[in-house]
Amino acid sequence: MEKFGVMVCGHGSRDAGAVSEFEAVARGIRARLPQYDVESGFLEFATPIIRQGLDKLRAKGVTRCLAVPGMLFAAGHAKNDIPSVLNTYQARHPEMTIDYGRELAIDPKLLQAAAARVEEALEAAGSDVPRHETLLMVVGRGASDPDANSNVAKIMRLLWEGFGFGWGETCYSGVTFPLVEPGLEHAAKLGYRRIVVFPYFLFTGILVQRIYDHTDLVAARHPDIEFVKAGYLNDHPAVLDAFAERVQEILDGENLMNCKLCKYRAQVLGFEAEVGLAQESHHHHVEGIGSGVAAHDHHNHDHGYGQDHRHHHHHDHAHAHDHGHHPYPHADHPLGPVSMKKQPA
Question: Which option is the CATH number for 4-105+237-311: 3.30.420.40, 3.40.30.10, 1.10.260.40, 3.40.50.1400?
């Protein structure tokens, strides 16, 4: 008889607050799924690592693991790194079947949580500035995957139109462009009295703090504009409900990840060289680092697959060779990471 368990796979952070918040989310998921054993783990920079969480489930007699990425969008970590770790684990432990769910993605529950955070910020700031004179800046994490980056822009548009703001813009905390500071500088030129900066992030950490710091820098240069810093998603009840829904989707056969714009399977403009790249996690050498405890002997961590991952993970790219990492084609864009290296005039 099958025994089910749930594995929540996070990225990990050196920030203790981010780790604590992820653990709080895992507890919230556990409370919503009392019929299952629920464990969590990280790709890097914190413990337990994903393998250790899987070990706990296996020790409890779990024979079928329902694994979900603890991430908003499907970029390299959700499409590549986590499946690679899960594939490697299952190749070593064929007695446990691992089914992989999809990311949170664009979802009415996530939009509800995002709207609540923006509304909280507006209420705290006061209502003297009308919404049509307010600009919304939604800040995504930033990835080398244009599909994930475009999803942040869609969230922005849904919030912009839903609230009735005067204008909406999107920027990113890293990797892609525009970054926060040049993005806000551009927004400041549009003539709006108030700019609401909303980090579309699950957890705190150095990137969220950087967003707020860059907001302060731009605000100091534009004292005539009111800058409002909204909170990130964190463990909003709607976020926890969405995670529980992703687990149920695996069992219901509704695990529908959008592969049509996946740069690893389709020739997406500017990323044509990445179709069909080999799938390999680059995180094995930093598993657990930053948490104060060495997670495992990574020198003995091979990447061999005993079985085709398509039998176990529902995100199938439908090509014989899997995918991995590749240099971001716009790494030198003047509004991207290179802008952080500019010296003040």
Answer: 3.40.50.1400
